[in-house]
Amino acid sequence: MTKTIFFSVGEPSGDQHAARLIRQLANPGGLAMRNDERIVCRGFGGPSMLAAGCRVDLDLTRHAVVGIVEVLPKIREFFRFADQAEDIFRSGSVDSVVLVDFPGFNWHIAKRAKKYGIPVHYYCPPQLWAWGAWRARKMKRSVDHVIAVLPVEKTFFNQHQIPVSLVGHPFFDAVAEQQLDTAVMRRFHSQQSTGERIVAVLPGSRDHEVRSNFPIQLETIRRLHRELGESGDNVRFAVAAYRDKQCLWCREQLSEQDKSLPIDFYVDCTSEIIEAAHSAMMVSGSVSLELLARGTPAAVIYRVGRVLHAVGKRVLKIDSVTLPNLMAGRKLFPEFISVGDPAPAVDFLTETMRAMLQDSFYYAKIRRDLQKLRDEHASPGASQRAAELLRSRLFGVDETLSEKNSLRMQTEMREAA
């Protein structure tokens, strides 16, 4: 018996999450299933899904947009893509639809799928709990089952009586699978053997984030170097750039007086830096999940304009911008939103990083709290659990079989922790 799942994925990160799920659907490993069950995957996605064996009808990741300014010129194009998906649904060849984030477009895919009676699942759903509670009604109309990746999502959708299952975040699968660069790790170990402590500097992955936040981080490095140098602390700062041009821009911000700073610049070595780091100063983003997975304490900043900050205060229904803090229900990672004058953000980062580097009791407490949260919510296996759920719903696996798989995977999560 063969079933076809249509994926709709518009972001590069979603492409990677979907690819892991597709591999688990094709190679279910220890999942109990019948020999004649087979799943074929097709749809809109990107190169990672293609490499995982999915038939990609459209590379939607090439059309990823952020904000209304980028969306408006492409509205016609996106409606054409949605019509293309509807043609596929009309053919009767699709048994289930899986949406991954990208809500502006995926609402249209869900609506068209429901038109033909195709079950719709939302994996890595949009963060309605943070900014869009008013859209819960649309989710309830358009989606049959939400596959949540964060505890706060499960709570939110339960409150709105939307069917939901929590599988964990696939980001932790990525961390568990990743092979760190041995040459880079040897360099860090060599530095540590001389007593140096490495502080990761994570300025963000988008150009505007780097340009807004790295100057604050750099000024913090200057102040810490002056203060810690006087007390004899041996600290080296490792800047993790996402792209070559971002790395070059960060280097160019150093003045002649900065030549003595103990600072190194890296491209595409973020995981290695986080693994080796004593602590980190970071810009709010999904990298916070990797810091959690690797147990690295961090201080978080995010710089926003006055207008966006004013709008955010009205729209956002959360008291933190950092995912591990939301998972914990408290601020394990100290954070600061910078608006206007950057000086308060520099003060915050300097004071917080100084405490992490010099107060061993404070640092140890953060490490213990991170370990506890990691044991509870950061175990790998999310992709496998999501695949098991989809198989159960596609092939009508009986409750006894589903419960058996669920208990087995819960045991594996505890052992992994």
UniProtKB/TrEMBL annotation:
InterPro entries: Glyco_trans_19. Condensation of UDP-2,3-diacylglucosamine and 2,3-diacylglucosamine-1-phosphate to form lipid A disaccharide, a precursor of lipid A, a phosphorylated glycolipid that anchors the lipopolysaccharide to the outer membrane of the cell. The keyword Lipid metabolism applies. The keyword Membrane does not apply. Keywords: Glycosyltransferase, Lipid A biosynthesis, Lipid biosynthesis, Lipid metabolism, Transferase. It catalyses: a lipid X + a UDP-2-N,3-O-bis[(3R)-3-hydroxyacyl]-alpha-D-glucosamine = a lipid A disaccharide + UDP + H(+). This is Lipid-A-disaccharide synthase. SUPFAM superfamilies: UDP-Glycosyltransferase/glycogen phosphorylase. Its EC number is 2.4.1.182. One of its GO terms (biological process) is lipid A biosynthetic process. It comes from the Bacteria. It is an enzyme of class 2 (transferase). GO terms for molecular function: lipid-A-disaccharide synthase activity; phospholipid binding. Pfam families: LpxB (PF02684). Transmembrane segments: none annotated. The lineage of its organism: Bacteria, Pseudomonadati, Planctomycetota, Planctomycetia, Pirellulales. GO terms for cellular component: membrane.
